[in-house]
């Protein structure tokens, strides 16, 4: 599959989301295991790596800086500002001075002179989006950042930001079971020439294989997500056997079907699945070779969508932090 365009960059159709090497889904792998995944991805042709100041409260950026610095010319590096850890807690802070300080710290951890794509991780609703993006534009002018992106914002906010400085990418959750970008975000990106980067394209593991949610680690962020609450997850799991059968019909695994579906939704979409497993990494990258017929796409669309999935994607407090258009949840 041909490369895809993100602002001034050409990247592989499937990137690597690096978050879970340091953060979010229970106990992360050790640094050597994380390094092995990063190097394998690079050797397998991945040239788009996604991290953030928040992930592991800096540990993820440090991991990438340690492992990939010698290979810096071989990939596009994306990181995020505007949300980071302070005294062990997550803080959203989009003030210009905070953004500048955060990026300086990120550059040091990443062991690089420039971040290729810098996202505003969350819009701080106490700060006009124009002010936050203006500070990020200053970092572009200073040569510390090459292109700008936004994460989890509405079409209206995207347009306001784009009027201040060209936005290269919008990153938002998008998968079969999270269709919110189809309300307005994707259309706005196409109107403005903005690439769409899909995080959690495997539905935080749901589209890979059945999961016993009672065994999730106490620090696993899915414990706070309503779709993974036991009753909701049991309802969602009833969709999986039919979904797995469609994957078998397509000649691929369930994970590959989810990624192939996204890739077929538009050449402007770049999914960034994450994994701690080299075997799963190789499986995910194989999705670029899967071709889905229009008829099979339609059947997958009809099986798992905003009308068949039970529960909201975030709990109420987290939902207040984001700015995206949302479908009304089922049940």
UniProtKB/TrEMBL annotation:
Keywords, ordered alphabetically: Oxidoreductase
Every NADP-dependent oxidoreductase domain range: 13-304
Presence of the UniProt keyword Nucleotide-binding in the record: no
Pfam families referenced in this protein's UniProt entry, alphabetically: Aldo_ket_red (PF00248)
GO-annotated molecular function: oxidoreductase activity
One Gene Ontology cellular component: cytoplasm
InterPro entries assigned to the protein according to its UniProt record, in alphabetical order: Aldo-Keto_reductase, NAD(P)_OxRdtase_dom_sf, NADP_OxRdtase_dom
Name assigned to this protein: Aldo/keto reductase
Species of the source: Zoogloea oleivorans
Lineage of source species: Bacteria, Pseudomonadati, Pseudomonadota, Betaproteobacteria, Rhodocyclales
């Amino acid at each position: 599959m041909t490369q895809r365009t993100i602002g001034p960059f050409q990247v592989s159709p499937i990137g690597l989301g690096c978050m879970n090497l340091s953060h979010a889904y229970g106990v992360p792998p050790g640094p050597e295991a994380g390094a092995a995944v990063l190097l394998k991805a690079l050797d397998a042709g991945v040239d788009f790596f996604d991290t953030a100041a928040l992930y592991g409260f800096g540990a993820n950026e440090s991991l990438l800086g340690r492992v990939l610095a010698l290979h810096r010319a071989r990939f596009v590096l994306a990181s995020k500002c505007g949300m980071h850890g302070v005294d062990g807690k997550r803080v959203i802070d989009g003030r210009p001075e905070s953004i500048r300080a955060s990026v300086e710290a990120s550059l040091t951890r990443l062991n690089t002179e420039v971040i290729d794509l810098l996202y505003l991780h969350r819009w701080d609703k106490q700060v006009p989006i124009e002010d936050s993006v203006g500070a990020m534009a200053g970092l572009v002018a200073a040569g510390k950042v090459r292109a700008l992106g936004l994460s989890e914002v509405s079409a209206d906010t995207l347009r306001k930001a784009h009027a201040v400085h060209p936005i290269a990418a919008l990153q938002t959750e998008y998968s079969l079971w999270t269709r919110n970008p189809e309300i307005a975000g994707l259309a706005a990106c196409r109107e403005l020439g903005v690439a769409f980067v899909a995080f959690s394209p495997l539905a935080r593991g749901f589209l890979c294989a059945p999961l016993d949610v009672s065994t999730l680690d106490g620090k696993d962020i899915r414990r706070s997500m309503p779709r993974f609450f036991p009753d909701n997850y049991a309802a969602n799991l009833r969709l999986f056997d039919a979904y797995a059968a469609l994957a078998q019909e397509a000649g691929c695994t369930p994970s590959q079907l989810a990624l192939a579906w996204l890739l077929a939704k538009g050449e402007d979409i770049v999914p960034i699945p994450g994994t701690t497993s080299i075997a799963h990494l190789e499986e995910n990258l194989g999705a670029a070779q899967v071709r889905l017929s229009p008829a099979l796409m339609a059947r997958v669309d009809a099986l798992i969508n905003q009308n068949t999935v039970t529960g909201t994607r975030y709990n109420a407090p987290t939902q207040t932090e984001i700015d995206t258009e949302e479908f009304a949840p089922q049940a």
